[in-house]
Amino acid sequence: MDFFKEGKASFFAEDKQLKKAEVFFNPKRKFDRDLNILLVDSLMHENSSGLELFSGSGVRGLRLCIETGKFSVFNFNDIKSKEIVERNLELNGKKLSKIDKTVTSFDSASFESRKKYDYIDIDPFGSPVFYLDSALKLLKKGGILAVSATDTAALMGSAQKACMRKYGSVSLKTAYSNELGIRILIKKIIEEAAVHSIKLLPLMFNFEGNFVRVYFKSTASMNEENVGYAYQCSNCPDRQVKEEIKCSYCGSKMHKIGKLWLGPLYSRKHVMKMLSTLNEENLNFTEDSLSKLSNYLTRISNELEVFSYYTTSEISSFLKQPELSISIFKDKTVLSPKGFRTTKSFSDLLNNGLK
Ligand SMILES: C[S@@+](CC[C@H](N)C(=O)[O-])C[C@H]1O[C@@H](n2cnc3c(N)ncnc32)[C@H](O)[C@@H]1O
Ligand SMILES: [Zn+2]
Questions:
Q1: Of 28, 26, 43, which is closest to residue 266 (Cα–Cα)?
Q2: Distance, CA 312 to ligand 2 centroid (Å)?
Q3: Which structural domains are found in the chain, ordered by start?
């Protein structure tokens, strides 16, 4: 067991890189946890109750409790690491003294509780779909749901059968597969929430290689027509959200992708709130964290709200031309270093000299 510090929390854990790690901790997810803390700090009220269904070492829950000051009740749950979470809570004792803490070791798929929570966190290995039911049953109206997925092969088009089985959708390997994965994950969670008569607004996302995380707020009203299909040409980069059998640019067959979420991947209003919290409040992030968060949120808030992005590499390989520099495009995306968004169709983009 090793000793770590992250943000304001101290804890014992094992680096997940180590073989046979008993208590999971991935130091590479620090930015993701920073973003999580800023989101909770900006968007939640005081005296909230929280439930972390997959605590691992407890680092995320500990940091949420200590650094946001928004929780008066927090339940840490992990099927495997109850003792170490208890030890880590003791280690941070003084900083947590005002919080009513519980540590449990239930299987999250059948987690039950008599009380409901303002914040629920699902951060499993692999797919979160098995845990949505128990989480949604316990989410308060107006509450926030955070969901991670690491089964990116299924979500992003490499394991199509697994995607159909778990998410009920067809994914596809494309230059923008990470966006397809996020949209399929959002669709699945929104669909599951509807079964519980809960409407969810997507607030924010984070994609880091084989890891995706999405946040929602349960709300009274939302446009339900935002779920549907997308169509990708089997030959060229052209894609559409309106039904097309043949590509309008090259006439080839279109692949049908979905169902997926076609609405915004984030809520501009809530992203702006996070940015103003970051700029105005004396948060205890390091300079490095502050600049990464500010850069990320500023980029997200400036993204065009359109389905999918093109990459300079897919266009150059299709046109058999040298690759254009991404710097010439105004509407870049955080989802790919070579990705840009446009409201133009593929043929209009080419007709306008790719501007
Ligand atoms: C990805 S780790 C959680 C990481 C933690 N949230 C963090 O930010 O460091 C997944 C955790 O889920 C636990 N786990 C796996 N299956 C579970 C289940 N069915 N119910 C509850 N916990 C489970 C594992 O013991 C592991 O600690
Ligand atoms: Zn085409």
A1: 43
A2: 16
A3: 2-246+254-269 (3.40.50.150), 309-355 (no CATH)
